[in-house]
Amino acid sequence: MLYVIFKTINHIRMRNYHLTKKEGILVVETKQELYSALFGSVNFPRNLSIFFVCLSLSLVMATLFVHECWFPTSQSRGMTNYHRWLYDVYVVISILIVPLVYLRFRKQITNITFRQKWNAYIRAYAQYQFKLKEVVENIDDDRTGQQKRTNSMLRYFLKHKWFQYILIVSCIYGCIAMYIWVTPFVSTRGSSFWILTWWPINALIIGVLYYIQFPLFLHLLSIKEVNQHYRILHQRASRDNSTNTVEKLTH
Q1: CA atoms of 167 and 2, how far apart (whole Å)
Q2: I need a surface site. Which of 34, 104, 135, 172 has the fewest CB within 10 A?
Q3: Tens digits of per-residue pLDDT, 117-175?
Q4: Contact 196, 83 (CB under 8 A)
Q5: What are 43-49's contacts with CB under 8 Å, separation 24+?
Q6: Distance CA 109, CA 105 (A)
Q7: Is 185 left (phi over 0), alpha (psi -120 to 50) or beta?
Q8: What is the 3-state secondary structure (H, E, C) of 135-172?
Q9: Model pTM?
Q10: Crossing angle, helix 17-39 and helix 199-250, to 10 degrees?
Q11: Dihedral, CA atoms, 109, 115, 117, 121, nearest 10 degrees?
Q12: pLDDT, tens only, 29-86
């Protein structure tokens, strides 16, 4: 279900990329400034992801020390010592990252400079969502039934902040839960590929999962304020449309 929702939202964004490119670039720029203010470096999420993956791959951790496994996934059949280290370290670190980033955020939010960067990110993200909504609503040609359903899903996603909370929390903790409980079916090659495949692919998958936690968690923290600013933009647009309609009727 989550896969279908994320695929649908990503499809809509890619389809309308050229129409929301300006707003999207501004979101990326303000997010990078936020990373710099929050972590001291724009590349902190990437560097930390590489560090943890390399830590799990190091000779000291994965070769010289035999890991006895902590969770069902790493305890399943077919796991090498490397797999056990990689997955268990990912689970433990991921559980710790969220509260640590939150505590860092609560400390920094009292700083005036950081607050200004945070507000810039909120405005940019709200403007991007508002622009995306306008684009979806103004595309009238070639609307198939499937396209209408996907557009409706996007509008629902933008309108209801609780749905965004559920989606992002499910994504963050769903990925962690995968590497706690999911075990490969040794008899089925395809089902075990993403867990027991060649180590560089495993490292890439885990590195990406480390990395996406940062933008997802920042968006989780910003949902309430983004939604408030989004509503202001919507009300302002409705008021402007009403004014324009009255002016046309009076002329």
Answers
A1: 7
A2: 104
A3: 999 999 998 888 888 777 666 654 545 544 555 555 666 666 677 888 888 888 888 88
A4: yes
A5: 44/214, 45/210, 45/211, 45/213, 45/214, 45/215, 46/211, 48/210, 49/207, 49/208, 49/210, 49/211
A6: 6
A7: beta
A8: HHHHCCCCCCHHHHHHHHHHHHHHHCHHHHHHHHHHHH
A9: 0.77
A10: 120
A11: 80
A12: 899 999 999 888 888 988 888 888 876 655 567 777 777 788 888 888 777 788 888 8
Instruction: For residue 59, give both structure tokens.
Output: 């000779």
Q: Which two tokens stand for residue 155?
A: 């509008």
Closest by CA to 4, choosing from 207, 171, 215, is 171
128 contacts 23 by C-beta, under 8 angstroms: yes
173 touches 58 (CB < 8 A)? no
Which of 132, 128, 118 shows the shortest CA–CA distance to 31? 118
Task: Tell me which residue has tokens 């180590």.
Answer: 199
